[in-house]
Amino acid sequence: MRRSLTVVAAAAWFGAVATSAQLAFPVIELTHPALGYDQPTSDAVASLNRRLDAGEVQLGFEDRTGYLGSVLQALAVPVESQIALFSKTSLQAELIGPENPRTIFFNDDVAVAWMAGGFIEVAAQDPRTGPVFYLLSQMPSGAPRAVRDGRCLRCHYSANTLGVPGYLVRSIPSGLDGGILPWLGNYLTDHRSPLAERWGGWYVTGRAASGHHLGNAPVADRSAQDVVVQEDNLRLTTLAGRFDTRAYLSPHSDIVALLVFDHQMYLLNLLTRLGWEARILAHDGASHDVVMTRIAERASETVDYMLFVNEAPLDHVQGTSEFARSFSAQGPRDSRGRSLRDLDLERRLLRYPCSYMIHSDTFAALPAAAKEAVYRRLWQVLSGSADGPAYAHLSADDRQAIVEILRDTLSDLPDVFSPLPSRH
Question: How many domains does the chain have?
């Protein structure tokens, strides 16, 4: 799905005239009283700060990466999730380049970014209000703290993030110095994006059997009219030959981690948007029935994404780190040992095409009406009462397995999610 990056002016809540696909998500004001975005939050970094204040945990400083290792450990973010980009696309753009890439580590709730010579950036998903952005100085201190920083919202709060504070996964071919070359490609990417549009300005280790991508390819000729895809760039097993990886926690930017990251970030934006809309409607006095009607389309869009409608096909993807194993090991698992985190990688991302993020704190914290709308639509699709070409990728076995996994692993799943009729 080609979605070139565009700059769209903020539009008033409920007052926007949809003149493009982007304007389907008018920007919601942060100051709306239903949201409390500027109030104290309960995200993982806010919790870490409270534990630091109470003396329950300390952050250790290390010569190579400063506080990075201890921050990842304190936030339960795995080192094997490291992905790396060399395009100059952050607050610390001047530091980033092919020989000094920016690395990102992530779990379901937190993304931590680090590059040599800079400070640590953290985006932590508050279950109620969405992502909160923090910076942590890399100067040794007796009392290190992550501090909220609104500058991140300059890019992470716009129509490109669905009109709420959110995440951006961008693919922009970049030069030998990391400077972006948007005329060669300029995309916002998620799991629907074809591999041919992904990872411009990123490093990628691992391979997809027939998947050309834009990664690992700093462009030497700024007058070039296209990115030349070289076979050697499609099957890197380590980044050790591209820069000095001894200063980094990992020599990988695993293709499997990148695929999971691409899926997860856009879904978090969808969930934040859905929750905000439901909270605003309820705050403004809408009845339950009105809220359900008004958010039905948004819930359907969210469910389609959770069920991988229009997912770009994959072909025998192979990673290079322990990410795939550690990701799948997290569960939860049903009585037959199946998990929504089980990876496929032969033809699609997940073995059972329903997002594991249905088990996340963000999903659990959705307003009751929003969660009800999602469950209602999810059952309509899985039961076959809502059918059509968009759901042709869901086989009878897929639908049955997803329902069974959800029944065993979600305590608040509505009773309507009954076992599907046998195919025999």
Answer: 2
